[in-house]
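Thread: pyridoxal-5'-phosphate complex, take 2
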Amino acid sequence: MSSPIARQNRTRSQALQQRAERFFPGGVNSPVRAFKAVGGAPPFVESAQGAWLTDADGNRSIDYFGSWGPMILGHAFPPVVEAIERAARASASFGASTAAEADLAELVTQCFPAIEKLRFVSSGTEATMSAIRLARAATGRKIVVKFEGCYHGHSDGLLVKAGSGVATFGIPGSAGVPEEIAGLTLALPYNDLDAVEAAFAAHPGAIAAVILEPIVGNAGCIAPAPATAGRPGYLAGLRAITTREGALLIADEVMSGFRVALGGALELYGIDADLVTLGKIVGGGLPVGVFGGKLRFMDMLAPLGPVYQAGTLSGNPLAMAAGIATVGYLQEHRAEVYPKLEATAKAVAEGVAAEAARAGVPLTLNRVGSMWTWFFTRGPVTDYGQAALSDTAAFGRFHRAMLDQGVWLPPSQFEAAFLGTAHGEEEVAATIAAAQTAFQAVVAG
Ligand SMILES: Cc1ncc(COP(=O)(O)O)c(C=O)c1O
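Output below.
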């Protein structure tokens, strides 16, 4: 039976992929771009405008990954483009301080009251790696608690996955990570405060920090559990335990920062953290990360204190310009931006879920503002173990069928989808119509 879906022609993209494979492992400079999890050939992007990507064969697709988060104002947003152009004319880099760094820092600290002082770095990986170093120095302790399914960049100690069980010492999640390093990371199930209590009881006075995605994006989208009768919400519970135990709470808001609210998950759920990491949106599409937090910790950094951390391109003028234009716009227009993101994301996420129900495809929708995941499982999905029950083959069929109709979703069941202010009714309607056809492909197998 021939597919009802009009296929995109990707001849040029396929040729470009073959060429790229000569130079880069898997043809890519970051693994998930290779589409291994969903099958099919990844389109090569030539340009993008607003909510739409144009590939090397001239196909146009609605973008639901937004450069993995940063493009909340849409592609080639004029104020961001102009800011980068202006900065470039004054030279791309000096390796000396500029006023723009404090300008962006001022915006960041206004949005995140938990951040009293900060450092700019060039990626989320650097931000979390540096925050962990600082936490270890501040506490004189070695063990770090993270949660299964949370991704905090690719530094050795954070690449750890736990096996099942409550408080398992980590095993290396990647070849090349020594067991001695992995052994300093405890990976626990998300949304399980008892597991955290058990870990602190098992390692008294040894846990330096608890790091988490306060809204998980990297196992697909999973929200923190709300308070129930007699029990605090998950985030409030973690705050109380870490404070009681003298460990730092590190909120990794690289994905959720500026997305779910201007002040990220910390604002949305009214939680404080000792250290916060940011990335993605804060650079407006250019490489920027942030780690920041309480003065007493941040002032331990060189040149004031004994914790070393540095970067040739940290605070790069082009990146600062893009960040100022993006965060400045979000701050100035927050009253319109966040309700619009909520309404558009609700319409598309729930509209597609309704098509799944109509087609008889089991689906669980998890959504917080403009980040969400359609898990191909009956659910609920409140931790990585439940996310892992998803039918990834069915997700792959859905992904390919959507892309063939010009809807480009993140190419993994375990990645959150995003949209931005450039997405509107036209994109929502086209996406729901495409989903109707795509679920037929899912059911056909
Ligand atoms: C929550 C979180 N932390 C850290 C990182 C690492 O950021 P980067 O890819 O900029 O190194 C990511 C990347 O997706 C992330 O989602």
